[in-house]
Amino acid sequence: MDKTSVVTEAEELLAEATGGGEEPAAGEPRFTLELNQDQKDIRDWVHGFAEGVVRPAAEEWDEREETPWPVIQEAAKIGLYGFEALAQFWGDETGLTLPIANEELFWGDAGIGMAIMGTSLAVAAIFGQGTPEQMGEWIPQCFGTPDDVKVGAFCASEPDAGSDVSAIRTTAKYDEAADEWVINGQKAWATNGGIANVHVVIASVDRELGSRGHAAFVVPPGAKGCEQGAKVKKHGLRASHTADVHLDDCRVPGACLLGGKEKLDERLARVREGKKGKGQAAMQTFEASRPTVGAQALGIARAAYEYALEYAKERRQFGRAIVENQSIAFTLADMKLEIDAARLLVWRAAWMGRSGQKFENAEGSMSKLKAGEVAVWSTERAIQILGGNGYTREFPVERMHRDAKIYTIFEGTSEIQRLVISRAISGVHVK
Ligand SMILES: Cc1cc2nc3c(=O)[nH]c(=O)nc-3n(C[C@H](O)[C@H](O)[C@H](O)COP(=O)(O)OP(=O)(O)OC[C@H]3O[C@@H](n4cnc5c(N)ncnc54)[C@H](O)[C@@H]3O)c2cc1C
Fold it and tell me: Could you say which of 65, 158, 411, 415 is catalytic?
């Protein structure tokens, strides 16, 4: 895709996002949860890839703990990995296609799912905060081409700044003579950190302003002073690469500041005058992505539930299928109930986010919190239903349980989501 088409597509999407939906014609229902044909087609297409390509590869890449480049390439070849796919998912003005696609992909496998979708966090930052020129320049470089696939990384967290994003120590200083930003710091737990073609780095341009002094920078491919630190060995999501990223006097062109210097200077001036800033660089990216992350957790939960249901119908003890015992059947009923309830929260938040409605009660956080906790609980119950088999690596539910756990930790822990929700509903600065 050339630069102009990315810009045009991005501009069209932005215009659509602010335009609102069409009024239904007389006689048409105003509210429906029935998916339209496009949504069903995309769901089935992603499901087919998840079932045919992702699932069969899941165990191997989990054991290897490596990025599954051949699977990402397959996804790119069929058009599932790339800006066009994300734009297509995002283009649905109901907001549902993006969570639906994520749920299906992560139903296939979450580690590989994250290897494919991890790039979208960097893309979301560029799309949300960049100028049309920056989108055109950097988004295609996050993905590469089907013959030479690349990934992107979004680096906000640091060893001493996880939940507390305001504690970020990485600095960016402007060298006016060279029109370059000089970035110094250490980023932690970055998905695709160090192996990415494009890194989006959150840095402080004014430490005194806390998180309101943050800005997002693109670190272009091959930039000197941007190196991978230790690769993290993980409990789950092991097909997805996670690593520290070191930034040592890393110089990036002035044009790599997302949104541009003029906008940053205006924002900082407003903040210094005591006026409200328009939100923080890292938080803006997280807010937009929470329902999508919730949908990923849902995919894992559903996969475990389906596996446990089939197993319970086949496994016989005491002369009957174990599903004939209420304790097993009721657990499965509760799993289905919780998953469907979580999906409704995810879809509501996705619809609200896409139609530009304000999350007055932290509905984005609610969706991610519920889906993450349902995924951890359902996968644990699935292990219980499979008994000894559930605990072994011969059966996939233990991997699903390991994968699910991260969904109560990253993109805001469950405690932080509760903090956000309780502050939103009470108006009190709950600590
Ligand atoms: C696999 C993986 C991938 C990741 N990918 C990325 C990425 O791509 N980019 C990125 O920037 N980061 C990424 N992260 C980092 C992730 O976002 C952080 O780990 C997360 O935000 C939590 O921060 P922390 O680990 O420092 O925990 P801490 O903030 O130290 O929290 C520890 C515990 O204290 C609790 N806690 C903290 N503050 C409060 C409070 N005020 N009230 C109540 N409880 C509190 C937390 O809920 C948690 O239970 C990733 C992490 C992992 C493990």
Answer: 411
